[in-house]
Structures are given as structure tokens and as C-alpha cells.
Automatic annotation (TrEMBL):
Organism: Dipteronia dyeriana
Sample GO molecular function, one term: RNA binding
Name of protein: Pentatricopeptide repeat-containing protein
Keywords per UniProt: Repeat
PPR repeats: 5-39, 107-141
Pfam family, one: PPR_2
Swiss-Prot/TrEMBL GO biological process terms: RNA modification
InterPro entries (UniProt xref): PPR_At4g14850-like_plant, PPR_rpt, TPR-like_helical_dom_sf
Amino acid sequence: MDQKSDASWSAIIAAHAKVGLWYECLMLFGEMNSEGCWRPEETTLVTLLSACTHLGALDLGKCTHSSFLRNISELNIIVQISLIDMYVKCGCLSKGLCLFRMMPKRNRLSYSVLISGLAMHGHGQEALRLFSEMLWQGLEPDDVVYVGVLSACNHAGLVDEGLRCFERMVTEHRIVPTLQHYSCMVDLMGRAGFA
């Protein structure tokens, strides 16, 4: 293809992302940028954020965020959640939390991303506070949210709280436990010495 349009660049990058070729996504984006005047589409930038998240490439994620701010007047909720996900999973929790607090309308996915990120980095109590806030806001948790919640209990060593959350998930929210939920509980019990 002699001349590539925004759409063709986006399609090529998305195809690489779909099969988990994250490094190649970033290389293609670099090539796209070196061609000059191409302005990446919003979906391409979200894909790049996902690549940065998977590779732990915080600096490049920050550059992508800057590109959003330069090229897009108003960020939609998918972009906002992708930014939060990238920042928290790359260990920049304060920035992720700041972006979350700035969101005009938070949804279950935005809470889920932040709860999981906090749990991943050992901030179990804060993740559980955020879960309580989500429930207080009237948002119904799903199985993904509960993986984050149980992981938070696990990493913080909160055995009793983990058991209560698991019970609540099954009885109150009628969520059928998956292998991930059971794995969190086995790990929680193992860390607490219940072998």
C-alpha cells in the first residue's frame, strides 16, 4: 500500500492488538507518526493505551495521553477508562485516581478498572472503600468487579472480609462464582495459613 490513510493505519494497528502483538502496535504507531501529518483516530489511541498497559510502558502512555489532549477536545468514557487503566496498572495510582475523580459520570467499568488496579498494587483497603462507594452510588457489581474485590482482600490479607464479599457476591448479587473467584479465595486462605 503506497499511501496509508488514518483508517488503514488504525486497521493495521488494531489487527496487531487483536492477537496481542503489543510491541508491534507501538512500532507501527511510531512509523505512522514518522510519516508526518497523520492524526490518529481515537480508537487507535485507545489501542495504543492498551499496548502501553500490557507492556508497562508508562512514559509512552503519558505521551499518548498528551496526544489525546492535543487532538481531541472532549474525551469519551472509553478513552477516560483506558487512561485510568493504563495509569493504575503501570503503577501511577495517584494519576489514575485523579482522572477517575475528574470523570463527570462514573460507571461500573470505571470502578472495576480502578478497584483491580488498586488491588494489584496492594491497596486492598482503598479498593474496598471504592467498592463501597460504587454500591452506594447504586451501581450493580458484576463478576469482573468481584474478581478485583476478592483480589483486594487477598493482597491485603483480609480473610474475613474476603469471605463476606464472596458470600455477598453469591447471595445478594446472584453471581455464579468462576474459576477466577475460587482462585482468589484459595489464594486468600493459603496466604492466611488455612492449608
